[in-house]
Amino acid sequence: MQLFGLTEPLWRLGAFLSVFVAMAVLELLHPRLERPELQKALKAQRWFTNLSILVLSSLSLRLIFPAAATGAALWAEARGYGLLPLLDIPPVLSGVIAFVTLDFAIWLEHVAFHKVPLFWRMHRVHHADPGVDLTTALRFHPLEIVVSMAWKIAIIVALGAPAVAVLLFEIVLNAAAMFNHANLRLPPRLDRALRPLIVTPDMHRIHHSTERLESDSNYGFNLAIWDRLFSTYTDRPGRGDDAIETGLTAYGRSAPTKLLWSLLLPFRRS
């Protein structure tokens, strides 16, 4: 698939690198949390592990679903499959409906990965990260990435989502995840202005709290409306934005920064 002369992989890679570099610079300039125990060597180990998991997850995804989400949309589009083509909805409106529906589907999937024990075994790799920053947004076990893509493809085909809308959704979702996982201190006024529409770093960091009631809230990755609609929204952490503890206390601070340990975590007992 091409958009304005560029192929889908180039769009995705360009957007990823641009957002990654921007967030990395902003984290250095305006960090929210200063954690000495997660600095220097341990942070370097975290980044190595998280980026390695990203590479392994991407390879697994390409092996099992070579065409991924956009390819599924093109396949369904060529055959006229899905609810949106059946209803003959105008292309622009179809794109908006597909984008919002996919965002809700990802929110619902996220809730399921916390509530269903089998899924939680995979998802706890993401939450075990003791420090939350933009690389945490990339730390999803290959098994979780494959299950997530299967769910996404099912929604795309059932909807008959336009391929352009799917590509834009994938780019925005990836960028939004890096933004809201960033160890970034936003000006309070900006945070308040953004929260009604999109998930901010202070809002999503609550979801990574060591406190169970806090981690059982703020499931959104992109649009901020779903947690408010379903009463899973928490405005502020109990310890405050500058003192919040993140990660899974059962695993400590060091072990989750190791690559092999993280890859084997879904196969360990809870």
From TrEMBL:
<feature type="transmembrane region" description="Helical">
    <location>
        <begin position="51"/>
        <end position="76"/>
    </location>
</feature>
<feature type="transmembrane region" description="Helical">
    <location>
        <begin position="96"/>
        <end position="113"/>
    </location>
</feature>
<dbReference type="GO" id="GO:0005506">
    <property type="term" value="F:iron ion binding"/>
</dbReference>
<dbReference type="GO" id="GO:0006643">
    <property type="term" value="P:membrane lipid metabolic process"/>
</dbReference>
<dbReference type="GO" id="GO:0016020">
    <property type="term" value="C:membrane"/>
</dbReference>
<dbReference type="GO" id="GO:0050479">
    <property type="term" value="F:glyceryl-ether monooxygenase activity"/>
</dbReference>
<keyword id="KW-0560">Oxidoreductase</keyword>
<keyword id="KW-0472">Membrane</keyword>
<dbReference type="Pfam" id="PF04116">
    <property type="entry name" value="FA_hydroxylase"/>
</dbReference>
<feature type="domain" description="Fatty acid hydroxylase">
    <location>
        <begin position="96"/>
        <end position="232"/>
    </location>
</feature>
<dbReference type="InterPro" id="IPR051689">
    <property type="entry name" value="Sterol_desaturase/TMEM195"/>
</dbReference>
<dbReference type="GO" id="GO:0008610">
    <property type="term" value="P:lipid biosynthetic process"/>
</dbReference>
<feature type="transmembrane region" description="Helical">
    <location>
        <begin position="153"/>
        <end position="179"/>
    </location>
</feature>
<dbReference type="GO" id="GO:0012505">
    <property type="term" value="C:endomembrane system"/>
</dbReference>
<keyword id="KW-0812">Transmembrane</keyword>
<dbReference type="InterPro" id="IPR006694">
    <property type="entry name" value="Fatty_acid_hydroxylase"/>
</dbReference>
<protein>
    <submittedName>
        <fullName>Sterol desaturase family protein</fullName>
    </submittedName>
</protein>
<keyword id="KW-1133">Transmembrane helix</keyword>
<feature type="transmembrane region" description="Helical">
    <location>
        <begin position="12"/>
        <end position="30"/>
    </location>
</feature>
<keyword id="KW-0443">Lipid metabolism</keyword>
